[in-house]
């Protein structure tokens, strides 16, 4: 299921000669497996594995089977609990899949992309020693696209650089040398933009995971005074904003806004502990992290405190709606795209009802089980709708009519509640669009309308 690679599964081997089926992983185990990839010489098999259930994006193990020796599977790369490690910027595997071709030609290394805090890099792991090496240098978003023989094709982008294809020889890897990347496309830099990573230390540490930090990526116009400040937390909640080129971010900055992409605690790329720290704390720890980020950036960059707005989709919309209610005098407007607003009513209609109870840390959920009154009361208390009476800022809602992940009714409920409270509200419904709202027509229309909304309400 898209965005949810934690469904219980088993890896099997079907023998064509004997017409027999044999499980390679525990049939009774509580695990999820995917991306089985044989080495070029057929002697080894690797695959990704994680615990089934729980948060819908977690740190993955890279597992190894020595196929010819018929050995039991072993752990090649284990889960990294913390983002601090002895490896060269490696904090664990967060990719949902390996590329189809992920081996070097001599079957000694597996190559993959993964998040490293607010960047994405390409790594290799040497099978004999388990040594992990980062193959890319400049910060941004590096992704493996294909490997043929001893050549690796990848793409690279960053906030102010559109994607480019690059190629390198993996023969250097076998010799213990760093890769020399050759650009196949011209490097296109977007003028008028400056950006940087910013680290944040939570004011209220998690009592179990007290050493965690989180990050934001701050984008600013380099040739003009900022028109205003857009705070943009990602969805998920267990995903991440990498320092990749995205036209939304670039366009907002080119129009004169400062934008902060917030990778709050619970984001991927910061170790498994960061992911687990948010479970049972949604609507609280993540909200506090995003608001703290806003306050610190306003102070450091000397931005206008009267021109701060919110933008978010899915769980990012959940956070934007929470921030409107928990800090009603701080934010001047918001645009919420397919946002989660009421966990109680979401359970019955979403295609991932387990997500609601997993993130809220409600034990004992079974498909079809009706939540108790006590559970519903708690879910309401951590939902944005619990703060509806305090919301003041003009709020625009954008909905993909075919969304099954966050049902359109979530936005319809919130829209009507805001109207009843006298809050200035507008709603756009996009037919034939689902959770991403990504058709060309819908994306362009939504961008124009959010820009007009922000400009109007920053006056």
Short account of what is shown:
With 459 residues, the chain is α+β, with helices and mostly antiparallel strands. It has ten helices and 21 strands.
Give short descriptive properties of this protein:
459 residues; eight-stranded mixed beta sheet; 21% helix
Strand content: 25-35%
What integer is the average pLDDT?
Answer: 94
Helix-strand category: alpha+beta
Number of helices: 10
* Number of extended strands: 21
| Biggest β-sheet: strands ordered side by side in the sheet | 14-15-17-16-18-19-20-21
Helix amount: 10-25%
Biggest sheet architecture: 8 strands, mixed
Using only C-alpha atoms, the radius of gyration works out to: 23 Å
What overall form do the CA principal axes indicate? Answer: globular
List unreliable stretches of 5+ residues: none
Give the termini distance in whole angstroms. Answer: 43 Å
